[in-house]
Amino acid sequence: MSNVDKLLAKFHEAATNPKKQLDSYLKNGKKVIGCVPVYTPEEVIHSFGYVPFGVWGADVQIKEAKRYFPAFICSIMQSILELGINGEYKGMSAIVIPSLCDSLKSVGQNWKYAVKDIPFIPMTYPQNRKCDSAKDFLNFTYGKVIKNLSDIDNIEFDDKKLAKSIEVYNKHNAAMRRFQKLLSEKPVLTAVERKDVYKSAYFMLKEEHTDLVEELNEYLANAIYDGSKTRVVTSGILADNENLLKIFDENNLTIVADDIAHESRQYRTDAPQSNSALDSLVEKFRNMDNCSVLFNKDKVRANYVVNLAKENNAAGVLMIMTKFCDPEEFDYVIIKKELDNADIPSLQVEIDRQMVNFEQANTMIQAFGEVL
Amino acid sequence: MSEEVKKKKKYVPNPNSAKYKLGKIVEKHYKEAIEAKANGEKIGWCASNFPEEICQTLGIKVVYPENQAAAIAARGAGEKLCNIAEADGYSNDICAYARISLAYAKIESAPEQDMPQPDFMLCCNNICNVMIKWYENIAKEKNIPLIMIDIPFNPDKEVSKEQIAYVKGQFLEAIKQLEEISGKKWNENKFKEIMKISNRTSKAWLEATSYCAYKPSPLNGFDLLNHMAVAVCARGTVEAAEAFEVLCKEYKENVKEHKSTFRVEEKYRIMFEGIAVWPHLRVTSSGLKDRGMNMVATVYADAFGLLYDDLDGLIRCYCGVPNSVCLESARDTRIDVAKRTHAEGLLVHTNRSCKLWSGFMPEMSRQVAKACDIPLTSFDGDQADPRNFSEAQYETRVEGLAEVIDSRKGDC
Ligand code: SF4
Ligand code: SF4
């Protein structure tokens, strides 16, 4: 096994065995806090010395969660609840659930009764982010999360520690952005390998992940790419199913950039310098944008996706639609229009976490690949 | 022969009745908006729970897409408009109110319920975040301003002073933006006056709905779902206050004279959870009436009765509307309503359109049913897309509920 293969194997191992990662942190005496999509103040959790651990559900059948959710709630939320009920997150000291969409509001309420052994910590983000009064409100709601975290071990919040955690996160963001950029220049990884890098980030401390990504980046910087693949951009909430991703490689498509919530959307915005570390986190959220769960009256995300495709010389855009995700379903229409106006071919593929048959997706993507 | 003549006789409502007055208010509301638009005034499309006191004070004409979508769906064109939105790429899983509204924004005409096209959008997401996406899209397509008041879902039972401050900041910002758009000026005294009228209307609405507690109830609970439109679109007007006061009087008289707008014997008293199934209103309503089942409890009764003393109080009210509160608050309000009205069963509309309403409804309704010790059943439906409802399932579930209530009464 070459060094890079070993490295990729590490990413794969972490990405595909979250339970193992969780248990190993717990065994080493670490406290772990679950972080539900789309954004959670991970830096705050990190500053307490806890491990922020991504909770985005998994491709499982839904049984127990049916007692709580009707069938028309997205499968990410359904499977998070299912896994919670089935003990997959056992050992976590708490779970932070933001209320950025209606389904997220519901999962938090259900969680309190469905998974009683893992306390629910709500995170309320203001949607009118640019409005002046949003600053104080965000300070207040971060403060509430801080209070909940403090209560776990009677640890006092320390702004200096938060400043250190912010450094760790900003550094990780930079490494992830560089990874994406290098991959755009030399798309030598398969779609599954690429996914492993993004997905593993949720199950590792960011400082550990940064080290691995930087090592991989060095390899990518020196890699040789023959330029034979068709370049595409992906957009959506989640695209981590290996059966779906394999279709990309089988059809010689390579993802050169993404607007996926589970992937690059996490790493676009750094926490800037500010009076205090907490203020800097407040500013970070206020600066975030181009996302279906963040209000923007001008819907700039549509242009963002067009530019992403242009800047990365992509031949087309694949809109990976999580079924029942209304924020994305609304954005889709506007994005599609802008892509059409810019003469950028696009394809919508609907997926969910219960999907086992990818025949249709395969046929659609294959046909799309041929057109490109 | 005489039977036939009777049937053909056109129903002429009494112009002094509340029903007539309320109907007229809605009619006038649309008519005035259409006229204002024709006269070059700027018109807004407004979310049902956007603080209407702002528009009333500024004298800005707004119309309510949710009311319109309900009317369109009730008059049978829900599917037609949903199809138009879907042909444009909107998923059929999106709230049908939004789909109907997006379609209307495109075709700009619907004989079932017309209203003027918007010059600006007034969004408030205290009922759902779908509102944000829906209004964003219309604002973008029409290239018009969007004014947003974000009222976050409150995970706690109390509304914090910080949340009030956040909303107040936006409230003031919204006034400024609207002054610029309309050229009209904010007048503090008028605002105080409007707050007074709104409270008067709310009081009358709450009193009217409180008559449901009488046994038998002097009203068919489904009436309230129809009257709600006025509570949404005209709360700050004297006409609305007066019409609801007349409604109170009528109900009071009904109680005295042992009459009711529920025209059959009231055998069962139930709580109905959720929005009406507008496209199948007749079927759903007669499915209850035919069994002597009256809806005496609905969370809407309290939802539009916003009582407050000042601006902070007003904001606190808007932070507490049904879809903006945590399970425990939502549950306790319902327990209170169900107990007050002596509901004997709970019928839940699992509304395909509304993810937030339905998203924690199973757990919440279990808790309500347990606390009130009443049976619970649910049916699948949709407030505006006729395709998501099965009459057979509805009938079976309602029948089942009646049987359980009977068996509990010990006379089965
Ligand atoms: S944003 Fe979409 S995918 Fe994410 S929780 Fe909300 S509905 Fe589900
Ligand atoms: S039905 Fe639900 S999703 Fe639709 S507008 Fe009303 S609250 Fe929002």
Fold and architecture overview:
The complex is a heterodimer of chains A (372) and B (412). Chain A is built from 14 helices and eight strands. By secondary structure, chain A is α/β, with parallel strands linked by helices. In chain A, helix 5 (102-114) links the parallel strand 3 (94-98) and strand 4 (120-123). In chain A, helix 7 packs parallel to helix 9 (206-222). The longest helix of chain A is centred in the middle third of the chain and has 27 residues, at 159-185. Chain A is globular. The mean pLDDT of chain A is 97. Chain B has 18 helices and eight strands. In chain B, the strands form two sheets. Chain B has a four-stranded parallel beta sheet, sandwiched between helices. In chain B, strands 6-5-7-8 form a four-stranded parallel beta sheet, with helices on both faces. The longest helix of chain B has 23 residues, at 188-210. Residues 1-6 of chain B have low confidence and may be disordered. The structure holds iron/sulfur cluster (SF4) (2 copies).
